[in-house]
Amino acid sequence: MEIDEEKIWKKNIALIAHDNKKKDLIEWAEYNKGVLAAHNLIATGTTGSLLKQNLGLEVKALQSGPLGGDQQIGAMIAEGKIDFVIFFWDPLEPQPHDPDVKALLRLTVVWNVPVACNRATADFIISSPLMIEGYKRQIPNFEAYYQRSL
């Protein structure tokens, strides 16, 4: 599906995939290339390289997930620089950086950032009318939390 870039609000989309899910994410991204081309793509290391090679789109590649890429994306979420996350994770394989993955997913919930952890959810997000409209997600008010820690 092609989109008129002048009529959309660019989103900052984080793309992540565990090793056993990289092929699935690449296939999903190829299918949705027309939509993704209109947005800013950020990915963890190897996933970013594969997306660039297979899609021919500009992708900002961070560190590999186990080397800090998940945490880099988490920091971008906390800074309000990510609009949503597509994270094809493998729940059946132990991950050496599992605490980083959990921290990343926790931050998506804390900062009210949509996250898709499988293809079905990614399909729902990318086909939403909100992909081409302006959407201002509600940022939680942490004032009471800040006051508590004083």
Textual characterization of the structure:
β2 (40-43), α3 (45-55) and β3 form a beta-alpha-beta unit. The protein has seven helices and five strands. The protein has a five-stranded parallel β-sheet, with helices on both faces. α1 runs parallel beside α3 (45-55) and α4 (69-78) packs parallel to α5 (98-110). With 150 residues, the chain is of the alpha/beta class. 41% of the residues lie in helices and 13% in strands.
What is this entry, summarized?
The chain is 41% helix and 13% strand. By secondary structure, the protein is an alpha/beta fold. Mean pLDDT is 90; it is low at 1-7.
- Strand order across the largest sheet: 3-2-1-4-5
Structural class: alpha/beta
Number of strands: 5
Low-confidence stretches: 1-7
Compute the number of helices.
7
Helix content: 40-55%
Mean pLDDT, nearest integer? 90
Rg of Cα set? 15 Å
What descriptors fit this protein?
150 residues, alpha/beta, 7 helices, 5 strands, 13% strand, disordered N terminus
